[in-house]
Amino acid sequence: MAIGYLQVEARTAQDAVPLEGARVWVLDEEGNILHRLTTDESGETQEVSLETLDASYSQDPDYTGKPYAEYGVFVDAEGFEPVSVEDIPIFDGETAVLPVALTPLEDRQYSQTMEEINVGEPAVAFGSRRDLEQGQEQVGSFVAPIVLRQVVIPNPITVHLGAPDAQAANVQVPFLDYVKNVASSEVYPTWPREALKANVYAIMSFALNRVYTEWYRNRGYNFDITNSTAYDQYYVPGRPIYQSISAVVDEAYGEYIRRRGQDAPYFASFCNGTTVTCGGLSQWGSVSLANQGYSAEQILRYYYPDDIEIARTNIVTNALSSYPGTALRVGSSGLDVQTMQAWLSRVRQNYPAIPAITDPPGIFGESTREAVRKFQSIFNLAVDGIVGKATWYKLSGIYTAVTKLADLDSEGTSLGIGTVPPNTILRQGSRGQDVVTLQYLLNVIARYYPSVPAPAQDGIFGSETRNSVLAFQRQMGLIPDGIVGAKTWRALYDRYLGIGENVPSPGPGADTIAYTVQAGDSLWKIARRYGTTVQAIKQANGLIGDTILVGQVLRIPVG
Predict the structure, then answer these.
(1) Cα dihedral 119, 120, 124, 127 sign
(2) How many Å apart are CA 152 and CA 256, to the nearest integer?
(3) Which class would CATH give 2-121?
């Protein structure tokens, strides 16, 4: 019997908070417990080995059975809703990393409701369903209509969990995580590397084409792409990511297919190539070509026009700082290294397994390399100690998540939210302090519920706030009318207070306030303004130099 591997990650608040001590059970298909595990300070379990089928079955297009074994996982952490994940495919020689995003219990919630996730077979195994759902190949735009002026990576990308007109939730997903999820949901991780790479290029190009042409938003939808294989590509919330696929995505991140002389990402349609054929890439055909020695680019040109080329974009929305353009590694120096070191040092407050950086600020030495390697290991990146594009933007995203969470914690204290909801009724057009409170609560809750978008905190109840209220009401099983009355206020407060009660608070304690760095600020000026010291600010934020960035959120020790 062949062997595959499984590791579980238990975290919350968009990976800002690892959950140490979560209990994890790994089950076979009959429900028998095979492993009892506990998560460490990074929210990770040890890797366990599981019996499965030989890899040759998942490399044979004529094999009609499931070319893998299926297992289940149950995760339970004190103060959080339990999660059950079923039908997890385990492949020969492959490590599946299962990210489990746990949701805090409500205030005064005495009974738990379990979240159930079913992973099931990759889309390549049920290709006929694409044809049955729509009756035609995927529809999209090869070059027009062009709306955006530049090719950008949407970070996050908004995914509709159903067909375009279906009543389903929208979730916001970091683009890197989205591509890894789709690739793990579409094909088998045991395929040759060049076949995997060709499929990853097609997946990224397909998604970027949807964004570039604003295919759905031009039609009045409030999302970028669906997870329906009849229209788009397969995204399964809560599924495991295979390390072989993860490494390929890290290498190709930000690259896409285009035709020579054009900027638009090519509409890279695809199908499994066995039960369904199409005018685009054959997923199984890519395996055959890779086994014949074709490179990923040659495979793409076999199925798409001959003038296909691989292009790159460095434009990422909502990024703190653009990727330097060249990978950072031992021997690199300068402001980009110092920025990266500052991010790592702050993330370390939430993830203490990351070793301290002892190199001088702006100098990429061995201690920086070891900190990078541990970060990459924790967040399912290729562990090479080199800060390429995937590591840079993942680090930027985690840094943003941990500082945003700390900022919201401090803001809640200053707003004086309390435990009793306002008795006002708010709707679109309302203004004032109660709207500020509403928007703050929605921003906090959005960190734990990807289906709830975070509105701007401007005190004006506009369409953005209404959409957030509607998403929250649907999530909580309330009547989705976009009006904040007594029931919605109570539900908001129950969720908010439950977060405060149940989510652990890593990093600096409550004796700090959040401050957003303004133009012209220096550590000395900030320290003088708040009656503290530069060294105290450095220690509270894990800073190893004096450089701070405009827009950076600092924790300022007070009292």
Answers:
(1) negative
(2) 11
(3) mainly beta
How do residues 217-275 score in pLDDT, each as one tens digit?
999 999 999 999 999 999 999 999 999 999 999 999 999 999 999 999 999 999 999 98
Predicted model pTM: 0.89
Look-up of token digits 């290498």: 251
Strand 33-38 vs strand 48-52: parallel, antiparallel, or unpaired? unpaired
The two tokens of residue 422 are: 């306002």
Helix (H) or strand (E) holding 329: none
Question: How many other β-carbons are positioned within 10 Å of the β-carbon of residue 504?
Answer: 14
Question: Angle of helix 243-252 relative to helix 175-186, nearest 10 degrees?
Answer: 130
- Is 1.10.101.10 the CATH number for 416-502? yes
DSSP sequence for 402-420: HHHHHHHHHHHHHHT--SS
Please name the residues in contact with 419: beta carbons below 8 A apart, sequence gap of 6 or more.
493, 497
In contact, 201 and 233? CB cutoff 8 Å: no
Annotated domain spans of the chain: 2-121, 124-312, 335-407+508-557, 416-502
Residues 532-557 pLDDT 10s: 778 778 877 778 778 888 878 787 87
CATH superfamily of 335-407+508-557: LysM domain (3.10.350.10)
